[in-house]
Amino acid sequence: MPAVSNISKNAHYAKFATTSRLIACLVSESLVKAVYIPCNEPGIQGLCLLLRPQRQAITGLEDLLAVVPLSGVPILSDTPLLVQGVKCGHVILVDGWDMMPHIYSPTTLADNVTFPPVVNAESTTGAVAKTLASVLLVPVGVQQLVDGFDAVQLWTQFASDFGVNEKLSQLIAQELDSSMLNQAHTYNHPKILPSLESSTVEWEQVILEGHATHPMHKARKSFAPMAPLHPENTNLETPQVRLLAIPKDHIQLRGDFETLARPLVDVMLNKHLPAEDAGTLRAKWCDHVLVPVHELQLANIQQLFPKAHIFPDTIHVTVQSLTSIRSVAVPDVFPGMSLKLCLGIKVSSALRTITPYTTYFGPGFSSGVVPHLTYDPKVLTIERELASAVYIHDDTDIAKHCSCVLREAVEYDVDNEDTIVPCAALVEKIQRPDTDITLVKHVWNLDTDDKRVTFLDRYIDLALQSFLPPALVNGVAFEAHGQNTLARFDKKTGVLKGFVIRDFGGVKVHRPTLIKTAGVDIDVLPDSCVVADTPDEVFKLLYHTLIHSHLQRLIRVLDLHYDGRGWAMVRKHLTRLVPQEHPMWKRFMEDDKVPGKCLVRMKIEELYRDYIYSPVPNVIQYRPSTVL
């Protein structure tokens, strides 16, 4: 059964979930300096002190943006920072899992700000104040620290100090607020815990917190003409798919879209119309393409595409949304397939539409390139994008609002006998915020150190076997983070058998390497972001998605990060699989720093398809910290 919910507690943890991610980004992107101070108080490993932007030293509380007690030691630079003449650790990477659920603001920043009651704060606040006083060499009372600093409050202060445009700052604050609102709703409505017998859809929908480091991890931000979305009255899990008719000379098709979509369209027509009327309707619209569309997208369709005919709401099918929300499945009537639909809302920081670049690339890559890639199909299953449709419009930012991709989905094949789980679900908590027990520990009964080590070692081995060969040999990196990657387990034993990869919108391909090794090239539209100018761009994407965003999460939740054992396993398997003369070896196995994706800097610069990177610690090389 779901865990018992407590609304007040959940609101506190919802704010912490979003704010901790914002802090992690501000630190890793070097937007603020962060100091680590060991703490001798029970239950607290140390403090992370965030300096206000432009401040280079700490002379008093007025120099601090926030204070966060830590349960684990973050990753520190070799170069310390000085606080009142004393050498302290310079934090260069701090993770949400390092933090305790208390984020303090000095009262100097909390004027005219309302803070709600905080859960179990008294003893923690006293310990934090005592440690701060010993370092700052000035008295610090508990009344000078306000617990419950949330993401909007912290962002507003940071943006003011940093000089972010006020209008942009307000927009970002709205997305952070949406993230906290939806996080609280998720905590308040826990799911039944899944098992090895659960369907993939059930696993898709137990995502509790989502992206581990993105501050807008739970944002669901709509824009006019779409109505505002509130979690209490918006159905994102079992929405309706409606039907459009688009003139054939106004739509670009890739693959045999009409034939592949026909079974689903027929179900929609025959379910809500007499059979003879369905045939008549098809005949009437024979010079149009019938395209499924997410019900929430209809407001945008009406405004942007006057030639698109929207069929009555009686013609629909109820579907189940996947982890990404815009991708949906109807296993009982559309087996072996899923649909990727455009949805004009911001989920995390991206508008979840589908660009013409993506609709054009996927089917061609699936048929022309995937069969020639170097990989072991016994370990990795690649779900091809079989067909797509997109409205023809000179402005791609408009065209992306009316598009659809039809994708293979082995997890919904009637012959599938495995338990197939989105990897992001494995590292989610067991439907409550105040625990470190995750679904992977619970479902696989990983209650001993030996069990966790055995599970992780096999997982790392098979994950690297799956995704390294296409990058090493062919210059192709899949976006192998936890949302796009699914793990295949034996339903009876729970033993990991391999992985499934889906979604080609974010792959990186170094064309000269692909042509040389596979004898084929990709077919892309001009300015497509899948093209890698150098092999290093391929390695950069693989590192960010597979190592930083995927394996790091599992290593942390299995309690194998701080002692370095999880990363030792990664190095062991990389040593076996990556030749030392290959350029990937230096990037993964020698470089202390790697390019890290700057989620907040990209927001400040208003970028999505173009990325900003800054140097971050190469976690593959992580060893336990020696605390100053």
Automatic annotation (TrEMBL):
GO terms for biological process: siderophore biosynthetic process. Pfam families: FhuF, IucA_IucC. GO terms for molecular function: acid-amino acid ligase activity. It comes from the Eukaryota. InterPro entries: Aerobactin_biosyn_IucA/IucC_N (IPR007310), IucA/IucC-like_C (IPR022770), LucA/IucC-like (IPR037455). Residues 200-427 form the Aerobactin siderophore biosynthesis IucA/IucC N-terminal domain. This is IucC family-domain-containing protein. Residues 455-606 form the Aerobactin siderophore biosynthesis IucA/IucC-like C-terminal domain. It comes from Absidia glauca (Pin mould). Transmembrane segments: none annotated.
